[in-house]
Write a structure and sequence with these properties.
mainly alpha, 97 residues, CBS domain Like, two-stranded antiparallel ribbon, elongated
Length: 97
């Protein structure tokens, strides 16, 4: 048996508001408009660290105004956002307005 020196264990998530917004922007203008009309704002949760990001219409104006798509390593679908929204409401973690 060989023992190694102990090392510190740390948790680090690479999510950010900017990366999450870029993933949301990849949905396209029509789907973002539909979500904003239906929900008032869009909330996305990181499934790794549980950080929550909320985006209002003002946060998405450049996308809604016709700017090009953002490049991102994150991919989101309308189904993902609705599933996250449903889970959030079912756990009473947040109420979207």
């Amino acid at each position: 048996m060989r023992l190694f020196e102990p090392s510190a264990v740390s948790f680090c998530c690479s999510c950010s508001r900017e990366r999450t917004r870029a993933a949301l922007a990849s949905l396209g203008r029509a789907e973002i408009e539909e979500l904003l009309e239906e929900l008032g704002s869009i909330t996305m949760d990181c499934e790794f660290c549980n950080q929550q990001y909320r985006f209002a219409r003002a946060d998405m104006e450049d996308v809604l105004g016709g700017a090009g798509p953002c490049n991102s390593a994150l991919i989101a679908t309308l189904g993902d956002i609705r599933r996250i929204y449903s889970q959030t409401i079912s756990h009473n973690a947040v109420i979207l307005t």
